């Protein structure tokens, strides 16, 4: 079975249809339309999952969970907003929920000494990759709040709701993340 050939034929079958038609087809159970939707959005979903988890394996698993849930819950999309905006919110919520479930199975500790030793042993990179490295070192809650607020543009009220915390806690986690990043990047 040629999976890549099937993806190409599924994409070309829906190439002339609008996104609304594609989503409508998925909502009616059309698996080829779903495959096209998956191919269209997997990069964006994985990117957000990676920024939230800071771990390739967890991001892959979370992305897979997003698309499993998407297939089950696509009927909840009513078209009130752009599909990509709706999918972004769904991805954030599912990834945060996924991380909560993983706590019992995966001990996620950020060993700053090891990370710093590895970082400084490597050649200096661009500011963006340096920032990404440091963001991955942040404690989990601070990292999630930082990514959602500073990178993804969520308001603290929305983050607090998604993460089941007070608005003040979201703001405090964001402040903590900023302070750590400034310190690690030598801006203080």
UniProtKB/TrEMBL annotation:
Signal sequence coordinates: none
Protein keywords: Sigma factor, Transcription, Transcription regulation
Stored InterPro entries: RNA_pol_sigma-70-like, RNA_pol_sigma-70_dom, RNA_pol_sigma70_r2, RNA_pol_sigma70_r4_t2, RNA_pol_sigma_r2, RNA_pol_sigma_r3/r4-like, WH-like_DNA-bd_sf
Start and end residues of each RNA polymerase sigma-70 region domain: 37-103
GO terms of molecular function: DNA binding; sigma factor activity
Alphabetical list of Pfam families matching this protein: Sigma70_r2, Sigma70_r4_2
Gene Ontology biological process terms, A to Z: DNA-templated transcription initiation
Gene3D superfamilies: 1.10.1740.10, Winged helix-like DNA-binding domain superfamily/Winged helix DNA-binding domain
Keyword Disulfide bond part of the UniProt annotation: no
Tagged with keyword Nucleus: no
Domain RNA polymerase sigma factor 70 region 4 type: 130-181
Family label: Belongs to the sigma-70 factor family. ECF subfamily.
PANTHER family: RNA POLYMERASE ECF-TYPE SIGMA FACTO, RNA POLYMERASE SIGMA-70 FACTOR ECF SUBFAMILY
Entry protein name: RNA polymerase sigma-70 factor, ECF subfamily
Protein's organism: Aliiglaciecola lipolytica E3
